[in-house]
## 1
Amino acid sequence: MKLLRTLLPAFLLLAAVSCEFPFPLDNVSDPAIYIEYLPSCPYSTPRLNIAYADPAYGKAAGLHAPKPGDVSVSINGSSAKISPDFTTDGNMLTLTLENTELKSGDRIEVKVDGGSAPDAYACTTLPPLPELAGVEMIPVAEDTTGNTLKVNVKLAGEIKEGEYYGLRILERNTIVSLGKSLDTTVFYSYKLPGQVASREDLNSLDLDAFANAEYAGSLTEEADTTSGPMMLLTYKQFQDNIYSFYVSKSGFNWQSLLPEDFELPAPDDPDGQEIPAVPEIPEMPGEVPDVPSIVLVDNAEYVVELYRLSEELYNYYKAQYLMRFNLLSNFGVTPPNFTYSNVQGGLGIVGGLSGVRTGWL
Amino acid sequence: MAAAVALSVTASAAAQEIERIDTLDTSYVTAVKEKMRNTTQTGLMRLDGDKLRSGVAVFGTPDIIKQLQILPGVAAGNELMSGLYVHGGDGADNLFLLDGVPLYNISHFGGFFSSFNTDVVENLDFYKSGFPARYGGRLSSVVDVETSEGNMERWHGGASLGLIDGRLHIEGPVWKDRTCVNFGLRRSWMDVITIPAIAYANRRNGDGTTARGAYAMWDFNGRITHKIDERNKLNATIYWGEDNLRAGIKEEDDAYMDLGIRTIWGTLAGSLSWESKYNAKLKGKMLAYYTRSNSDVGYTFDISYPGTNGRSSMYWNDDNICAVRDGGLKYDLDWYPNSFHHVRFGAAAALHGYNTGRKYDQRNSFAGTEPEENNGEEGDRYTSWEPAIYIEDEIFISYNFTLNAGLRASLFGTRLKSWTSLEPRAALKWLITNAACVKLSYTRMSQYAHLVSAMYIDLPTNSWMPSVPGAGPMVSDQIAGGLYLTPGNFKINIEGWYKTMNGMLAYNGANAFYPPLVNWEKSFTTGKGESYGLELEATYSVPKIELSAYYTLGWSWREFEAYSMFRFPDHNDNRHKVNLVATWRPSKKWNIFANWNYHSGNRITLPSHVIQYEDGTSALLYQAPYNAKLPDYHRLDIGVDYRIFFNQGRTLNFNLSIYNVYNHLNASFAMLDTDADGKYIGMAYGLVPIIPTLSVGYKF
């Protein structure tokens, strides 16, 4: 017993030693060149970020961004003209490709003279345009409010193993409201395609297929409001060339609150402007306006944007997604997050995409 | 003529497998040496039941898997878990056989304890390479556990109590020299403490809120053996184990709320076998088996509350179920046509059923509205069948050379697609002297079943699924070879291996706790693995002392294009691994054990680079998976057995085991942190301190 009384506090003391301890990581990495070529398609501007990436655990070497002369870009083997962007910041140099019309099948190569870091090289080939065979939107019967739609996106041709796609949904809400006078407001927002129509479908929920990327975002920059989530799809997620998802209309179906015998005013607004049937899609989705007190009509329409992604771009976007959401990977109990890079000698991404969009549906 | 006689004697001796290694120290050592010389296979380790029952008992329970973890070529993975990563394997590619019946789930409590009750184990064969053709279906290792038939002469038994569980064991003749039984039962007893402790805390709390929680695991092994005559024997075996976790909270006031989770998972495996000696040259074994691994993860949400229009209530009950069920037949034959050949051949067929499903019951009743009810069942069911045939021949080419050549052919059929596999196996032994031999082997293995898991710990949310288009079979090729010496009291093995694995799967989603079971293959990406290294095993044995030293120099790589364009090290790429094991038996009463375990740290993924911006902010970048190494792992375990002997062979045994004696907190995981200067540093977290445990057992 005496021995126990002596040993027990000793054990407890030993067990109480702090469980947190730093460990050296000095040799984890060497200086490297970071390349990020965000893809080109008809709806975005190509951008090339080149950065000097210091080892994360060493002493910061001060600001030393690569120079434009260190970078060369070629398209289908011909040198492309590049110019520095005004947003060059710290160790990050931003370049734009001048007078460049890119098309499917173009091969883009980026080389960077690394200086004190190894030279870096990466390339990609812009994938072919996806061919949309049709898009249908069907109200989900179980949702009596009519707010939920099932969308079937059908591709033409055979979808082959190794093909990667991106999907974005733009919503346009046209609101006819009655304030002091009849008013019409149109606003736009990007939707995240959903996998389930209601809570009863939760068992079929595949959280992994929710992988999405902020289209205009990058590893080094938070996405801004101009971007919309791009659903990341592999060939595996199409069945008989069809990918199905659900969208729920933004806001509330105000019309359902009106008495059945309520007579809608004429569809001309008091300003004398007709509600445009297919307004131009703005470059940037606008801010959601204040909704007037009485909404008479809230009409939602959609544009489906379908992209074909190069494999490296898909992996890059998937890596971004997992870095944001697979928090468990830090705890040593799950496999690691993707850390995709296709840059030889450095890190980062040079990827391509091409896309098509429907009209308003 | 003399040479012919010598050859015949050697061949005959080699052809007779050592059925049971005697537990006496000297004969044990001799038998092991004999076995090493006799077997043609590389990478084989045979452990007998007594050895498995002795040694350091973590939490007071001897654990087979933790004993295998110390062997060279095996990485243990996360601390305290039942991980078995053999020659670069992924941990879900080991074939566990219990009396010939495959087991899918071999652990309790998330992997803390293995399912094998050492009380009933007769012996264990562990193959890391050189797999004979009679084994198939997994890539990286075979753990063939055989339970003891029981004692045909006398009744024996025992009971023991450890830190977390208690065990009962009984064996003896039902019909002397004809029929005997062997039963073992284990049950954890943590709930015996936690249930009253929580009840007491609830009573003291007294605010209308009550918590509940209990965990229990149990398993039962049974074997009945009946000797029909000298040539025929029947065996019936059963293993049934379960884990049960329940927790919840209830609040009773004007409003009522009851939230609860319940998780039950387990394994059932049973077999009937008939062993026959048809004649002096031919014997056979027919085996029919059923094995099932299942889990049920559920929750209940029950709430009601008063309102101005009356009382409203919501009740949701949800159960997510997954199971794998196998029914199979095996027929194995041993044929000794002459002194130069020992032919084994046979056939097997298994019907696999995999199902996932959900039962739900939802009832809502809101005051002033019509009650709603929604309930039902849904799920997916996969069925596949897997016939296989094999033949292997141990050919005694000459006094010095033995060749084990074999071939296994299998088919895996599903309603979507079928796959076939032809797996050549070959092992060659060159007996240089009576104390030295060289062996070389080549094996191809294939695996049709995949573990849908996204974690390194065994959770009930893990499930087994068949190969499907997009996630086909995995295939490995392995070459191994080495030098095996037995000078004097030493046994020294130096063995190298090179292994490639194709069709490996890795989860590429974000829902690690519960990977989707519907269209599961969409959430996995395929890749390759490569592993190579060198193992050194040195054992010194004299009657009272056994000293073993194991060293592994190994590399384990992965190539998953979706993770990285370049190959990267595996999570368990432990460059160096050292295990020192000492056993001292100063007297019949005392056994003293010590194990020192060391390995290079497991790999983790941390940011590798930083981009500095003008305003002082920075962006962190990742270059490659598993780019960093945790601090090296090491710990010392010691154990002491003290026995008090009574008459008629009864003994009282006390075991004191201390895990991690010098309380070295090994890093379980790491995160990124910054030091006082704002510089990024790795911060490791150790979770497992010194754990002393005492267990007591009584045997009669």
Note: The first helix of chain A runs from residue 2 to 15.
## 2
Amino acid sequence: MDLSRRLFISGATLTLAAPALLRHGLAQSAPIKIGSLTPLSGGGGPYGPEKAKAHRAVVDLVNTAGGVLGRKVELIADNTETNPEVAVRAARKMIDADRVCAIAGTWASSETLAIMPLCQDANVVQVYTGSSDYLPNGDRKGLCFNLQPLNQAWCVALADLAAKRGFLEVAFAGPKNDFAASMGESFASALRKVGGKIVGEPFYYNPNQVSYRAEAERLIATRAPAIFIAGYVTDFTAVYRELVRGGYKGKVFTLSFAVGPDFKKVVGSAADGILHGSPVPPVGKDAYDVYLNLVCLKPNGQVQAPYGCAAYDEMNLLLLAIEGAKSTEGPRIAEYIRRIANGPGERVTTFADGAKLISTGKGINYDGASSSVEFLPNGMLKSRDFALYEIQKGEDTLILTTTSIVD
Amino acid sequence: MQMLVDALASAAIIAPAAIGFTLIYTLFRYANFAAGGFVTVGAFAAWTLNAFFGLPIWLAGFGAMAAGALAFGLCDRLVFRPLRGRSGGTLLLVSIALSFVIENIIRFCFGAQIRGFDLPLTGPIEIAGVRVTRETLAVVAASAAATLSVGLLLTATPVGRALRAVADNESLAQIRGLPVPRIEAVGVLIAGALFGLSGTLIGLDLTIDPNLNWAVTIPIIAAAIVGGLGSPLGAAIGAFGIGLAEEATATFLTPTYKGAVGFAAIALVLILRPQGLLGDKVDRK
């Protein structure tokens, strides 16, 4: 065969273009990669596994039904150890090596804030549960979505409870991190609004210490009739033990995730009298029951897996948004998360129902297992149910439930 | 006075492990950063025996010492003995890697949840205006007994003399007919038992979880360095010094600086008195 100039140029062009065409073709059939970055150990250790399990359950269900955009979803899972430095290393690997389009599951605000600059630079969407009031500040591109209300909402409920119980002078303590710092400010402000005040300065300590005796001594020395400790279960348990051993007789307020079953087992009857609160899933709602059944838990009218249900919503939102946007580009996914969460459209509670409607071109409004999942323009949640409890005879006794709404 | 009692309680927890650390350094000339890992093994062993099998805490403590000795003996046989003669830096890096392995084995076996001994949480007894708990008294007594026992063992028994001879000059000890590997094994088992004891004492004070590992490692090493590497009594005194410095930092300054105390103590001792409080000066040739 004679090699004409025209044939040579055409052949050479095709040869040079082939890798790009192949790459494009392969990208359209390659799995969609999503990061599941949860605290499987450390302060968030009691709750990370339920988040990881919910992510996996949703992805397995979706893959069994054919995936998203006809592609399999690949979950890249890692452990933050409830440590921002570890979270950054894991996120760096997910973004640079695995090329994820979104990272879901971070639990401590410090982890979420630590990985935020990396995600913003790489246009990676973040869907998480966190409550530091500083969380919206780092989201320059509108890529972040929070399934938990901010500290301001928690503190209004807790300060109201303190005032109702007659505790208008409350000392504040917490580990030195973004979450506790923000909680300290918000609680002081909420307490002032109900006529109370923080005793002394908010008191911060290092987590992961060998001893908390001196910290407990300083808190006891304030002579405050009540102390609000915004800690995680690991440090809260140690500080609380030292308060009891130091002879503190006042009231202790804290957050529900610090006084779960592990805490009660460790301190026994000394847990009685602690007042605590946290956002709770809407018990009895169909979407919550669907989630519980998916992770093999029986709906029993009680709060179960309070962070797992939020993780279920995180993954459903992400996958529905990718399906709707027909893209794995971060800004497109973020745009569709807003559209899907806030509507307008037909109410859906699962990926399967939502994907079916999306394929027919109809609008949807995702109603979640943890809340109605409506976002403010800054990606923070509009409202969520909140419950306050008192530990009595080793059990959480419900005092009241409220719905926190942010305008 | 309250601060001194609190410092003593903190020191009592880390003193046995600091003595174990210094014993290993004296015998093999390397800093074992896996000390915190073996302390965590001891804490989980004591928890298993106390909370799971229902044994009284003192018996669980002895079990934890046995578990610590067994775990450290096994690791020494599998990891450190094949590397005998390598530089201290190599062994230090190996011990850091081993520490991660131990932490993850514990996490795999026990999960990441916090645990506590099956003991009631009670208030303090007040003696002359100083608050002290029954646990603190027990912790200080156990720690003091362990420190004295090791001191007696090293100074007043043939095994102790042999240990010191091997630590002083291994070749000479071998020429004199001492069974060096067996004596080294005894030293390893004693150090492991001390790590196990510290694990039990820490469990009385803190919650037991796999992250204990790194929370205790720096205070243990700081106590051993401050006291003088190679001196068991120095390690105990170093532990008290570190405990006192930490309590004073949390009381008079801000508690967030407490974590830096161990590092600051190491830096100061290395600058001002490199051999530590009771350590012997070593001239390198």
Note: Chain B has eleven helices and two strands.
